[in-house]
Amino acid sequence: MQTLNVDLGERAYPIHIGSGLLDRAELILPHLAQKRVMIVTNTTVAPLYLARLTATLETGAVAVSSVVLPDGEAYKNWETLNEIFDALLTDRAERKTTLIALGGGVIGDMTGFAAASYQRGVPFIQIPTTLLSQVDSSVGGKTGINHPLGKNMIGAFYQPKLVLADTDTLKTLPARELSAGLAEVIKYGLIWDADFFAWLEANMDKLRALDPAAITHAIYRSCEIKAQIVAQDEREGGIRAILNLGHTFGHAIETGMGYGNWLHGEAVAAGMALAAETSRRLGWLADADVERARALIRAAGLPDVAPDLGVETYLEYMGHDKKVEGGKMRFVLLKKLGEAVVTGDVPVDVLTGVLTAPH
Predict the structure, then answer these.
(1) What is the largest CA-CA distance in the chain?
(2) Which helix (H) or strand (E) holds 262?
(3) What is the signed CA dihedral for 242, 294, 261, 210, rounded to 10 degrees?
(4) Cα 14 to Cα 242: distance, rounded to the nearest angstrom
(5) In angstroms, rounded to a whole number, what is the distance separating the alpha carbons of residues 256 and 259?
(6) DSSP string covering 175-232, please?
(7) Is the pTM for the entire model greater than 0.85?
(8) Does residue 121 contact residue 115 with C-beta atoms inside 8 Å?
């Protein structure tokens, strides 16, 4: 097991990464305010891991209840969130009852938002079971739900007490979901660490084959980069925005195609290709840099070509993006491989050219 810490003062918490962690009650019990938890999971993950996690907690004399939600981005909404509140109220959950998110990014985001809201805040723990949630969404305290007009537009910053990433859970992950998680791993290399990007180029086959040493290193380094950035800027007032490379385009793709038709990681991958092309047109990246980025995206089994939604549709959905400031769209772009910048100075003709360019 490897452990790193998200340094947020009194809200600091550990991230444990390794094999067999679902069976280790001693990692969870110290973080419970009372010996009572509610596990939030979904119809896909529950048959795989709910009984196992429940048994682990019960060895520590913890009273465990659970709520099983429908699976998928299409259910990341008010109606499904209310199912969590219904279960908490029916169970008479208290302010010291801990919510445990057992699942991917959708479960983590909704459980965190429920925890931030129920009785104005109860503790929660992230146990992410997908690569995307292990390297990204479980770390940093972003929680929320989608709205028909925009992704993740309703939510809260609310930090977990613990993140427990059991790499064994990735063995049950469909290949498409694994690739979707690799999009966020690639992102960290592009925005922060050119050496890590080069390591990914050399090791992508191992990652897709779930080589234990390679996948553990990729998760650890990704979490390490995110923890460093979040520690500097918890609420995304500055540098944390670079974690959204590809997301402004990607969220427009997800919304425009209908939630769940493109996986989040797939949309981010195509969005990163668009961001790289925008950076090239602004004179920051060379042609060879863009091709390296696109080649790595393809090697991960991801799309490097965005769907043709039409320029107007893209601009409409990107106008709802959380990074819009003073009515002006802001983009995360690349000064070079390994260095990102946030800018609002992208001429409309450049943006239009990128969105209409043949691929």
Answers:
(1) 63
(2) none
(3) -90
(4) 23
(5) 8
(6) HHHHHHHHHHHHHHHHHH-HHHHHHHHHHHHHHHTT-HHHHHHHHHHHHHHHHHHHHH
(7) yes
(8) yes
CA distance 59 to 209: 34
CATH fold of 2-172 reads Rossmann fold (3.40.50)
Check pLDDT > 70 for residue 359.
Answer: no
Q: Summarize pLDDT for 272-314 with one digit per residue, the tens.
A: 999 999 999 999 999 999 999 999 999 999 999 999 999 999 9
CA dist., res. 196 & res. 121, Å (int): 37
Domains of the chain, by residue range, sit at 2-172, 181-356
Cα separation, 176 vs 82, whole angstroms: 29
**Residue 155: how many CA atoms within 13 Å on its side-chain side?**
25
Question: Which residues are the active-site residues?
Answer: 120, 142, 184, 226, 236, 240, 244, 247, 251, 264
Q: What average pLDDT does the structure give for the chain? A: 96
Pairwise CA distance, residues 293 & 142, whole Å: 27
Amino acid in the structure at residue 251: H
- Please state which CATH class domain 181-356 belongs to: mainly alpha
Instruction: Give the three-class secondary structure for 67.
Output: strand
Distance CA 158, CA 197 (A): 30
Query: Strand 63-69's sheet: what is its strand order?
Result: 2-6, 13-18, 163-166, 124-128, 98-103, 36-42, 63-69
d(CA 355, CA 257): 15
